[in-house]
TrEMBL record:
Gene3D superfamilies reported in the protein's UniProt record: 2,3-Dihydroxybiphenyl 1,2-Dioxygenase, domain 1
Name recorded for this polypeptide: Glyoxalase
Domain Glyoxalase-like residue range list: 8-117
A Pfam family annotated for this UniProt entry: Glyoxalase_6
Length: 129
């Protein structure tokens, strides 16, 4: 059987450099950009994880994303991560947190692409190493 690993997740952007900088701050990925290029790739520090490729497009995002990223904080809490991402320019789109502390927050990046912030491994009672 031949496996086809995901090499990149591609995101259309009006300003690929600005959007890549936002996602660098979100993910801790590594930059790989040329200032005049219409494509910006950021790569994961872990081998085998897909990169995020931002490509300049002229059209406007229309409707809900059919694919989105789920972010799980490696440390701290979901709510601390939501606050950090708000400070970076994200917005809350839908809040699915429950009074018991479960749930997730659907956010939008600075160009309106949806992503979710889940509870951290620690909040789930899982090992954090």
């Amino acid at each position: 059987m031949i496996l086809n690993p995901v090499r990149h997740i591609t995101i259309d952007a009006h300003d690929p450099h600005a959007l890549a900088r936002f996602w660098l701050a979100v993910t801790g990925y590594l930059p790989d950009e040329e200032p005049d290029d219409d494509e910006v790739l950021i790569t994961a520090p872990q081998p085998g994880a897909p990169g995020l490729l931002f490509i300049r497009v002229g059209d406007v995002k229309a409707g809900k994303n059919r694919v989105h990223l789920d972010i799980q904080p490696p440390e701290g809490t979901r709510d601390e991560t939501v606050q950090r991402l708000l400070a970076l320019g994200a917005t809350v789109y839908e809040d699915h947190r429950t009074p018991e502390g479960l749930g997730w927050v659907t956010m939008r990046d600075p160009e309106g692409n949806e992503f979710c912030v889940e509870r951290s491994a620690g909040e789930r009672g899982l090992p954090t190493s």
